[in-house]
Model the fold of this input.
Amino acid sequence: MRKVLRRFRSLPIRARLALLVAAAVAFAVAAVSVTCWFIVQGRLTEQVNNDLRRGMRAPGPEIVSALNNCTETPGNAANPYRSNYLQVVKEDGTVCVLGASIGRVKVSESDKSAIKNGQIDKLYFRDGTDADGNAVRVMLQPINTTVGGEPGPNVGLVVAISLKSTQSTLNDLALVLLLVSGIGVVGAGAAGLWVARAGLRPVDKLTEAVEDVARTEDLTIRIPVDDESEDEIARLSRSFNSMTASLASSRELQQQLIADAGHELRTPLTSLRTNIELLTRSEETGRPIPPADRKALLASVTAQMTELAALIGDLQTLSRSDAGHAADPLEVVALQDTVEAALRRARLRGPELTITAALEPWFVRAEPSTLERAIVNILDNAVKFSPPGGTVDVRLHEGELTVRDHGPGIPTDELPHVFDRFWRSPDARALPGSGLGLSIVARTVQQAGGEVSLRPAEDGGTIATVRLPGAPAAPPELP
Done:
């Protein structure tokens, strides 16, 4: 059985569908044919029984004569019954064949029991055979006899009709049903194969499209789909189109990321190479660089390496976000504590600035380290663009964090690009940075289910707003 199942599963889908359809139709046709045959058999049997009833006449003196002169050979008395077989049977099974009967019906034990214990004048029907083994339909009627005015022995009047014509009709019907069933199964198999081919044609197109994508890596391939269709094939085609569109977008983002990263890495790497070549040439030629210049070169090398390390860290953060991999498991985080930690770092980077904070409790579900880095990036931008001796105002109220600086602000035409990767304002390109800080902020806030925005302040400067879903009290599971 397992081998058959394995062999069946190894067949193409079309062949399996055709076989399943043929098997289902064969089962249905067989059930209908067998039911039809039995119904016809029952109707024919009932018709024979009715013929036997109609042929029955009131018993006459022939029965008494048959009893008095019981013999198993046909007599010469006239047969008062319109049937092929007519005989009288005693309780012990003795058969007295009446005249003009063509044969003798074999007596069964049920006949003896009906004669002995059966109801008088009730008709009993059964299938039987005659002395030559031919099938007959038998009708038996128990009768009380009288001999010389005295009650005689119980006997049964047996009338039978040959079933040759009935069996011939049933055999012909069985042959017709068998032929019709065979034709139906073959036709069902052919129809199933045709339906499978027609139904799987869209799947063939989808398969060809997938193979084409795998062979050419062309993610612009789309499968035509009827917008009004809602069947499984249409849904599968739409899913494939969505998948290829997502893959194409992901590839485009990857290529853009690689191109932008290469562009951003080129500047610090070029500066590093230049400084290192100067130091190497000084060592090889024996002409020392003045101490002040050497110190400046080493400071530049250190700064460029720090910038490279920060850029690589930002790229790793973005790549994890794009791949859907969390740096840390999601936890319930006290946002006010995270902002406090970020403020401590911001005050160290801008000691000349005045940073004010008004923080209310708010608890969110996020990655702790990533969330802190995003807030640090926002504060770093505020510190970077604030004038010496300026003020940065930080406020956390009902899950909304606002950071306001008093710097030059962001032009309105640049606002749509501030969260793009590697985008930097022309005025900020001379300042250190990779252009990835606000991209990381936007991605982190979006993954936490929040929103982030930048807008110019009315009296100068920029206001950064972060909204995160949460609650002012810690959940019960928090310690």
Q: What stands out?
A: Confidence is low (pLDDT under 50) at residues 71-78. The CA atoms of residues 205 and 278 lie 62 Å apart. The first helix runs from residue 2 to 9.
